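Methods: example folding runs. The two proteins below were folded one after another, and each record is reproduced exactly as written to the output file, sequence line first and structure-token line second.
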Amino acid sequence: MSDVKDFRCNGCGAPLPIPKNSKGRVKCPSCKTECVIDGLVKNAEMADKENINSGFPLLASSAVLHRKFVSLLAETPGMPLDVFEKGEVVREEHCCIPSYLFYCNGTVSYTYEAGNERSQVVVRDNGQKSWEETRSHTEWTQMSGNANASATVFASGNRQAAPQIKKLYMFLDPTKLVDFDELDFPHDVVTYDYNLPQAASFNEYIKPYVETLLKKEAEKSLKDRTIRDLSMGGSRIDKDEVVRVFLGLYRVVFKYDGKEYSVWITGDGEKTFIEELPVDRERKKALDDAKQAQEKSMAALTVPKTGCLTFGLVVCIIFSAIFTITMFGGGGGTPFLVALPFLVGAIICGSFRSKKKNAYSTQQAEIEAKYKKDVAEIESQAANVVQQFKHQKKALRGIYEEVSGDASAFPA
């Protein structure tokens, strides 16, 4: 047997068709040499060993990957202005990550204090007359409840790739998995090992997520009630079923100014996990300074204290009502003259209170507008560079140069 590279027979050099169910062992149709494709052989052997029968393939085209990478560069705050000219895509690696699909459900008990509004009628007396007043207060009662939640989520079976799987595949729709024989992995795929036990993967990635779901369910069930001191008890999370799967990942490596940067992309080219991208430090600092200036200006604003004004407004309204209705029965010119100062006071208090609030909102809007203007000025050059690059439709240097001129390889 002989190892095969680039889908060509090492015996005669003829093109080598790779059936999806070959599992990495193919007989050359021209010279009958039995050829072995290392990546696919390891993939098939692990699938048999770990009882893997489904997964997510690597189906993204070069145009899709190029478009995604250009979008990431263009959206990077402080993008170097020469990144499209001097950067180069140097590698596209194909990775197969053994993972777990967990079907699980959980329950949790919780306690809280429920508030109920209570009213009490009291009789008051000022020595000349007496009257009834209704007083309200909140009565707190210790309560308990239970919450339930279910989840269908993925987690990595390899510790090295765990952050990527959590970011890119944790909430993958299981119906998008395909049978193992239909998995389309390139011949040079690198299949990672299972080195993260199922229990460890569950405890580190799935359990915290389900516990968060349970808390949200508890809060949802209490959203229309007055509560305080919500406390979650111990949760019970059961794994109804665990399925072992393969998840395909692209790792695109970009080189700029002597340094390599990596971006992980899902098999369909839709989602990305960024480790790091090139940044112009001076431009990034200018953006950070603009943000800090905005935050400093916001913090320096004096929040309008309208408590006294509100109190004055309420007092004026109450006294107006007392003089016009209670003391004079609601009629005649004299009560109106008595209540007039209070009505005028109410109008003045309300007007002044409104002006203070409006002035505060205006200052906030001005600070926000200045920040957006500063950012636009800093990024204006970058925006022009990005627009020109898209218009020219000339691909990034390196392995994706063949997509030049293809409109689908560039963001809209």
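Second run, written to the same file directly after the first:
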Amino acid sequence: MTAPEATSTRPYLIRALYEWCTDNGFTPHIAVRVDRNVQVPREFVRDGEIVLNVSYDATSGLQMGNDFISFTARFGGKPREIMVPVEQVMAIYARETGQGMAFPAPEPEAEADNDVSPGQASDEPVPQDAAAEVPAEPASDERVVQLVSIHSEGDDEEPPRTPPPSGTRPSLKLVK
């Protein structure tokens, strides 16, 4: 099989990172670019994107195929059928650590074809059990990027935090 005929690695990497998250007790989330081919509750879409909790506890009947990810999840207490084409998945990561992998964002459809507009989303709160708003920047190149924790392996302890003296404003300290 030559390179142009090879199947995409994206569904395999998504399944592998899902398994890694669940094996380590983390909550896997996927960031999805929403277009007319994505079946999600449109009222939870923000700026053409949605983040979905795909953990065992948040889904029912999860199927992660080579072409689609499908499951049932509760949004606002109502069960909803979710169907996401794998090519629309922009990232999969562990909610607790942020570790995971980002993929090149799919090209957005033309305005006339896109049935989700940035201002379409409602102001309802997003339930923690199914979805959460996380703005993501579209990838500017075609490479797969691995998300890593900002903490090193042996850096399990955080330095003690001291509150600022009263009457002063907090400030950021640049650490190189």
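Comment on the second run: Residues 10-23 form the longest helix (14 residues).
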